[in-house]
Amino acid sequence: MTSRAETECTIADVTSSPSTSEPHADDLLILLAVSRTGRFTTAGQSLGLNHTTVSRRIAALERVLGGRVLARSSGGWELTDLGRRAVRAAEDVETAVATIHEGEAESDQIAGVVRISATDGFSAFVIAPAVAQLRRKYPRLSVEIVNVTRRALQYRSGLDLEVVVGEPQVHRAEAIRLGFYTLGMYASHGYLDEHGTPADSHELSRHPLVYFVDSMLQVDDLDAPRRLVPGMPDSLSSTNVFVHVEATRAGAGIGFLPCFLADGHADLVRLLADDFAERLPYWMVLRPDSLRQPAVAAVAAAIRDRTAAVQDALLGIAPAAER
């Protein structure tokens, strides 16, 4: 694996050399790094270069190729059509360099930072344990998780993969269905002792709802409680599902909660399970080049394995011993 010092030396040599009619391999690798992070600064840090050098080398590459390889977007830098063709060439260069080190340990390749966007509940229940187990084998691996509940992005600069609720409609990306989870109505024992247990959806509509902020909900599939019981007044609303759980436990109202989070609390009771069991899919979305990165491929596989292992819990199915 090329050291940071060797990379800086190579780049310095490229910078001082005159322009040629063929793109420099180092410039292509810089573009590849920018395409994966969406930012000059982050790409530069991974290569041991400063922002100015990255910008200068991208400009030099564009002069040689005769067009723009990057375009600015709200999320960072995105590849143009010319840039995507250049990145394919860069990946060939990266693969060729990797063959020099084929005898090195696998752990040398499963390293670096993998950036994930996912819902807070899935991150805690699936991703965190999966990554913890993976890092025991690959301690040089680092994972950054951004928690947000939204549709899959059309442009995912700076992200290696996303986990979203509902089937994504995306272009130039690979979408993999991970599995399903179930949401249900829950209330605390204390709340039910004070306000009574609703016997049907009509009685349920008289109780306050603990759920997402309606005006900020970006995923249509998550509108079930307001669609199924439109009369329920809002009690406490939040963009964070752990707030939903804790508010429901505290007696703020009836929460529409993921079963895999609510079932772990003995003080919560599931209500009207036959009437309210919203089953939704989790999908993983990756950039086309992401799975060719050993670290990203390893994290994606670990997430898939963990999701499969806890599928019953995600669906709210109790272990056989508890039925």
Descriptive keywords:
disordered N terminus, D-Maltodextrin-Binding Protein, domain 2, 3 domains, nine-stranded mixed sheet, Arc Repressor Mutant, subunit A, 13 helices, 323 residues, alpha/beta, 21% strand
Summarize the structure.
The chain has 323 residues and is of the alpha/beta class. The protein has helices at residues 4-16, 25-37, 40-47, 51-65, 81-99, 120-137, 189-195, 201-204, 224-228, 241-249, 259-262, 294-309, 311-314; strands at residues 70-73, 76-79, 112-118, 141-147, 161-165, 174-188, 209-211, 234-237, 254-258, 268-271, 278-286.
Distance between the termini: 54 Å
How many domains, in number, for the residues?
Answer: 3
Shape: elongated
Cα-atom radius of gyration: 24 Å
Please count the beta strands (DSSP E, at least 2 residues each).
Answer: 11
How do the helices and strands follow one another from N- to C-terminus?
Answer: HHHHEEHEHEEEHHEHEHEHEEHH
Q: In the CATH hierarchy, what is the superfamily of the largest domain?
A: Periplasmic binding protein-like II
